[in-house]
Amino acid sequence: PMDGALALRYARDRSDANDLDRTRRQQQVLLAMREAALRPGTLWRLPALVQSLWDAVDTDIRPGQVPSLLRLGVRLKGAAYRTRVFDETMVRDWTTPGGAMVLLPDWARIRAAWAELTAP
């Protein structure tokens, strides 16, 4: 099991080939956090956890929306989640005139992946 510091290092690690690998790790950490939050011993502490995180997170979610989002998160089963991370087929390498290496989106493939994720 990872503690918070190790999970953060794991999610932020840049030693892989590209940002897509880091994105996969970040998604793994977020899903593991959800599972940990839904353990019976943690559920009763969720309101306090949300409150302690509020100052550390930048979001446009209003405080009044948090309870309904928490209820939704508890009701949804982990198997109901469909996840997808951009992969190498959805982007292409490009170097900016300033020399920065970036990934350009392949919108057709991204739209196809979105349609797959949101299909009933």
Structural key phrases:
2 strands; 52% helix; 8% strand; globular; two-stranded antiparallel sheet; 120 residues
Describe what you observe in this structure:
By secondary structure, the chain is mainly α. The protein is built from 6 helices and 2 strands. Strands 1-2 form a two-stranded antiparallel sheet. The model has no long low-confidence stretch (mean pLDDT 85).
Please specify the SSE layout and strand pairing.
Elements (H helix, E strand, L loop, with lengths): L3 H9 L6 H19 L2 H4 L2 H9 L11 H10 L15 E5 L5 E5 L1 H12 L2
Antiparallel strand pairs: 1-2
- Indicate the low-confidence ranges by residue numbers: none
Number of distinct beta strands = 2
**Count of alpha and pi helical runs:** 6
Computed structural class = mainly alpha
What's the main sheet like? 2 strands, antiparallel
Helix content: 40-55%
Ends apart, CA distance between termini: 34 Å
Radius of gyration: 18 Å
> What do the pLDDT scores average to?
85
Main-sheet strand order equals 1-2
Shape: globular
